[in-house]
Every structure is written in structure tokens, then in C-alpha cells.
Amino acid sequence: MDPSILPLFSADEIMLRLAQRKSTGCFKVFTSLDSATVFFKKGMIVAAAKGKSDGETALREILQWKDAFFAWEPDIVAPIPPLRPVLIKVDAFLVKIDNPVAKTSVTGISITNGKNSASPIQPGEGATSRTATKSITATAETRIADEEALLRKHRLKLISVSNPEKKFKLTKATSLIGRNPGSDIMVADPSISRQHCLLQLTDRGLHVKDLNTVNGTKINGIPLKEGYVNIGDKLTVGHLTFVVEEAKQ
């Protein structure tokens, strides 16, 4: 995972992505008062340490930290000993967690000093009052179930206008479009920024947020900082335009 995209996600989201990509290395989590390390090997957590805590206890504490900073160092092997070896599958662990974890929706997110901070959407930026940032508290199991429900409700894909053979099906509730190889939807075009825009599935539909890019993001030809797209709408990132269509099962 490219370190430059880490500020866009929360700790559990990053760990899920590391697991999906079968990554090996060291995931570091920092706050102003504490720090922790989680070691991955081929997508499995093999060690975790936070102060005197380790294993699942350390992971539970990490997931409840707020305003955390993240770092990723690939190909780092866990020092065992002194760390106690574990073998934890990320998605199964998140489902097992009983303690609620405070989550903030991606809608209305801003990037400040390498961390996520909720900010209200300004009038006149293509948004409505319904897109104001809201915080939800839910167990990891509930959040995963909610994301799966959104993916079932909104089966969407992006089809390039200039090259209809280029199609991107949305397989995550939150997807990053960018030139960065670590993006969920990687588009190698010089007009697209390394981190260009975020796509967030919501009950209302697909929310798009431009990440302060040079060439901007447009919905049906209108430059917007953020807004919603529906089936049949055209989404332009940089100089490339995609049509939003329903994806068949």
C-alpha cells in the first residue's frame, strides 16, 4: 500500500486493504500520546504490540484510537521474539469485536496534516444539506454488513467514454480514484492526480468528492468539489470521462 493514501482511511479500513492485497510489512499507528505496530505476512497479522499489550488486546485498543496517524513499511519482518507470534485473519477479527468503534463517514472528509478530519460541506460546492458529515457508532460486524448492503443496493460500474472496453466495477463502499498504483481504481493518465477523488456509496447513491486536484472533477460537465452521481450521469476526472451504469450480477 502506498503510504501517501493512508490518510484517506481509518485503521480498520487500512488493515482490511492490507489483508486483501496479501501484504507483508509493518503497519504503524501513532497518536500524540501513544504508538503501536502491527506486522503483516501475506495478508495475515502475525504480531501486534502497543505498550505492554500485544496480540488481539493491542488490536482492540488501536481500533478505538481517534485522530491517529499511519505509516506503512513494506517487507518488514516481525521480531519474534520479543513479540508474541499470532495468526489473525483481519476480517474475522473485526467481525468478532464486541466493543463499538466510532466511525466517521467519508462524506465531508478533509485531509489535514496527514490525518482525517470531519469538516462541514460549504454551500455552493455542489452539495446539499443531506451531505453534511455525520458520525456513526457501530460494531465492526454492523459496519461490514452495512457496506455489503450498500454494494447490493447500488451495483455500479464506470465505463470510459473514449474507450468503452475500459470498465471499473465498484467493489468497495469507499473507493479512491487516482494515478497512484495503490488506488482502488488506478487510471494511468497524466491529467489525473495521484489521489484524485473519493467515491462513497450511501443510501442516497454514489457520492463523489474531489481531493483538491489541479484538473478537477466534473459531474455532467459541471465542475464540483463534491456531489452525487446517478445511473446515466457522466463523471469526469481530469480529462477523462466515465458514464455511470448499473453493473449486472
Descriptive notes:
By secondary structure, the protein is an alpha+beta fold. The protein has helices spanning 11-20, 55-63, 90-96, 140-153, and strands spanning 25-30, 35-41, 44-50, 53-54, 69-74, 101-104, 109-112, 115-118, 135-138, 156-160, 167-169, 174-178, 185-186, 197-201, 206-210, 217-219, 222-223, 226-229, 234-237, 240-246. It has 4 helices and 20 strands. The strands form 5 sheets. A 6-stranded antiparallel β-sheet has the order 11-10-20-19-16-17, with no helix packed on it. A 5-stranded antiparallel β-sheet has the order 4-3-2-1-5. A hairpin with a 2-residue loop joins strand 2 and strand 3 (44-50). It starts with 10 loop residues before the first helix and ends with a strand. 33% of the residues are buried.
Terminus-to-terminus distance: 29 Å
**Number of continuous helical runs:** 4
The biggest sheet amounts to:
6 strands, antiparallel
* General shape: elongated
Q: Estimate the mean pLDDT confidence.
A: 78
**If strands are numbered along the chain, what order do they take across the biggest sheet?**
11-10-20-19-16-17
Poorly predicted spans: 98-138
Class from secondary-structure proportions: alpha+beta
| Strand element count | 20
Looking at how many chains there are and whether they match, the oligomeric state comes to single chain
Cα Rg: 19 Å
Beta-strand proportion: 35-45%
What percentage of residues falls in helices of 4 or more residues?
10-25%
* H/E element sequence: HEEEEHEHEEEEHEEEEEEEEEEE
